[in-house]
Amino acid sequence: MKLAAALLLTLGLAACGGSYMNTEDAEPPVAVPEAEEADWRLYGQLPEFDTKVDFNSIETVQADGYSEALVYVWLLREFKADQKSDFADEYDYRKEYTRFVLNCAQAEMAGIAVERQDKDGEQTSRRDVPGFQWQFEPAGSDTYKADFLRQVCALAKQKAAAEAKE
């Protein structure tokens, strides 16, 4: 019975081109903002690291499958000392870039990409989450995450209003 199910699954995938995802036409992951193009604004400071948000990376997109527009943004954590990774295949890093997608109407967000770089700016790792695997989490209230969501969503509205005037 298991053999028959496996055979049917294999035949079904073969009929669809051999894969359940069309990776040939997929867009490449969004790159970390280039230093000369980014507008990094200080968001917070702790003794171990500074947190910055790239104002230029804030974009509002009406994505398929969502009734409300989504907001994308890059966040940077610059550590003052090398950080050890939890993953065996990664080297130490100093900068951690995280791309978030925010559902402002639902007050929830998901991390969709993380790139880590060493003190010389060389990439030590990159991990991206495909859209069908995004896990939105509620921002809550009176939390760091809720404050971040409120501020970025407000900036997204300001940018959209400014673009509408142009």
Report on the architecture of this protein.
The protein is of the alpha+beta class. The chain has one domain: Lipocalin (Beta Barrel), CATH 2.40.128.710. It contains two helices and eight strands; from the N terminus they run αββββββββα. Strands 1, 2, 3, 4, 5, 6, 7 and 8 form an eight-stranded antiparallel beta sheet that branches. A hairpin with an 8-residue loop joins strand 3 and strand 4. This is Lipoprotein. Keywords: Signal. It comes from Chitinimonas taiwanensis DSM 18899.
The N- and C-terminal alpha carbons lie at a distance of 64 Å
Q: What do we call the CATH topology?
A: Lipocalin
Structural class designation: alpha+beta
CATH architecture: Beta Barrel
The helix count comes to 2
Would you list the SSEs in sequence order as H and E?
Answer: HEEEEEEEEH
Mean pLDDT: 85
Report the radius of gyration as a whole number of Å. 19 Å
By CATH's scheme, which homologous superfamily applies? Surface-adhesin protein E
Number of DSSP E strands: 8
Shape: globular
Could you estimate the helical fraction of the residues in percent? 10-25%
Task: Name the beta content range.
Answer: 25-35%
Domain tally: 1
The CATH class assignment is Mainly Beta
Largest sheet: 8 strands, antiparallel
